[in-house]
Amino acid sequence: MQISEPIATKIAEYLLEIKAIKLQPNNPFTWASGLKSPIYSDNRLSLSHPQIRTFIKQALAQEISTQYPTAQAIIGVATAGIAPGALVADEMNLPFGYVRSEAKKHGMGKQVEGDISPEQAVVVIEDLVSTGKSSLQAIDALRAHGSTVLGLMCIFTYGFESAQANFDAANCKYVSLCNYDTLIEVAVAKGYVSEGDREVLAAWRRSPETWGV
Q1: Cβ within 8 Å of residue 49, ≥6 positions away
Q2: Is residue 213 a part of any domain in this protein?
Q3: CB 91 within 8 A of CB 53
Q4: What is the C-alpha to C-alpha distance for residues 108 and 40, in angstroms, rounded to an integer?
Q5: What domain range is 176 assigned to?
Q6: Among 136, 168, 195, 208, which is least packed by CB within 10 angstroms?
Q7: Which among 71, 102, 95 is positioned nearest to 175, based on CA atoms?
Q8: Could you read off the pLDDT of 95-144 as tens digits, one per residue?
Q9: Closest C-alpha to 193, from 5, 9, 26
Q10: pTM exceeds cut of 0.85
Q11: How many domains does the chain divide into?
């Protein structure tokens, strides 16, 4: 699910402006998985820009209040979801914790960090959703902890059908401030890519595994 178009458009403008998202349909990036992609996203760059991080923080907080009004705590997904999650928790005056990718192998052996009781209903914060795999691993850890996971909020999603299917299968709602379709519309309108690049970019989203092969 995505929120209102004006906010989504503004987020897209900001992320393109600071090069947190780069589009190179004719000179694609290679992801860690080995897949070729015309897009690269590093939303952590928004943290270096006070105006932008404040806009994102307030937009996330506003949507959590609307979509998940019974939230009792905010949980970031390590590592990229920790900073925006902490900012949102501060904005909403709610407890904050975070989920490691795996339990610590020393000390208390925790995977869920923070003073988060199992009785609390939580909202999870991510910077980016691609397939949703890492996000859902965090959600599984929270559920094992005993938390009620109301849903997940993210800054940006590629909008893969597989991601929606994965969240549906896990019975978990997710909401994004901005998505790929809005990003492409803004990128074409602002001249980051040409109108002729639109179909190339759309083809990647339809089949990222075979694109560029």
Answers
A1: 14, 18
A2: no
A3: no
A4: 36
A5: 5-206
A6: 195
A7: 71
A8: 999 999 887 666 666 899 999 998 899 999 999 999 999 999 999 999 99
A9: 26
A10: yes
A11: 1
